[in-house]
Amino acid sequence: MKGIILAGGTGSRLHPVTLAVCKQLLPVYDKPMVYYPLSVLMLAGIRDILLISTPRDLPVFQELLGDGGQWGIRLTYAIQPKPEGLPQAFTIGADHIGDDRVAMILGDNIFFGEGMGSMLDHVISQSSGASAFCTRVTDPQRYGVVAFGPDGKVRDLQEKPKNPLSDWALTGLYVVGSDVVERVARLRPSLRGELEMVDLLKDYLADAQLDVLKMGRGYAWFDAGTHDSLLEASEFVRTVESRQGLKVACLEEIAFSKKLIDLDQFTVLAQRAGDTAYGRYLRGLITEWRADHD
């Protein structure tokens, strides 16, 4: 299984903050935004991940994340010359995908919920065709919308409709097969001049190969592409971490818990974090682990 993080775009909705800084590098409370989608893929057991970004921003991502070896994964990089729609990620990542299934997640999407990684892992291992995730929102006009029939199956999809058929919005997480590259090649740009994810999913729907899973109570999703949603996401993460004493999207902890790295490697990462709240958290995990294994 392969993974793709699409971290391109201009972040125009966050101007002037993003005039010089890519939005996926902005902090969501105590971590860069890109840590959150990366954590979802890692929790699902995906180790081979391609990050796609702009020519300007790609070197900064490479400096931040490296080759992923410190977390026991493989990170590679590709350039999106200009934003021409989400499905473009599959064309850019064609060589990366090869003959495998792939999970693509948007770099500004933040998911939280017990078992999120397991749910994605189940979709990856069990499904064929395309799978997407949706959640209820109060403003479906801003998103791709899913309408379900009485049988619970997908009836129709809309892209940012003025009159939504439902309040179920598509999130930025998709699982598709290797045939996605051929399907994207058949798409035509919308009136916005971009390839639309809804059109790609409709192509799967026409072949009865689309499954959209509802994320119900207990899950939180943020599309951190506006100032308000970015602040809401930061406040949410801060609240969860302060109340539970556990970090959200802590890549070092995930890598260690998934046995992608050993205790010695984890200890090195904890030391590199320095005398910060993040570093103290990592060293606290080492103390707990040793107490449990004495």
Automatic annotation (TrEMBL):
Q: Where is the signal peptide?
A: none
InterPro entries, alphabetized = G1P_thy_trans_s, NTP_transferase_dom, Nucleotide-diphossugar_trans
Question: What Enzyme Commission number(s) does the record list for this chain?
Answer: 2.7.7.24
Question: Which controlled-vocabulary keywords does the entry list?
Answer: Magnesium, Metal-binding, Nucleotidyltransferase, Transferase
**Which reactions does this protein catalyse?**
dTTP + alpha-D-glucose 1-phosphate + H(+) = dTDP-alpha-D-glucose + diphosphate
* Domain spans labelled Nucleotidyl transferase: 2-238
Is Magnesium among this UniProt entry's keywords? Answer: yes
An example Gene Ontology molecular-function term: glucose-1-phosphate thymidylyltransferase activity
Q: What class of enzyme is it?
A: transferase
Gene3D superfamilies named in the record: Spore Coat Polysaccharide Biosynthesis Protein SpsA, Chain A
Q: What are the required cofactors? A: Mg(2+)
Similarity comment: family membership: Belongs to the glucose-1-phosphate thymidylyltransferase family.
Report the PANTHER family cross-referenced here. GLUCOSE-1-PHOSPHATE THYMIDYLYLTRANSFERASE, GLUCOSE-1-PHOSPHATE THYMIDYLYLTRANSFERASE 1
Q: What does this protein do?
A: Catalyzes the formation of dTDP-glucose, from dTTP and glucose 1-phosphate, as well as its pyrophosphorolysis.
UniProt name for this protein:
Glucose-1-phosphate thymidylyltransferase
Provide the species name: Magnetospirillum sulfuroxidans
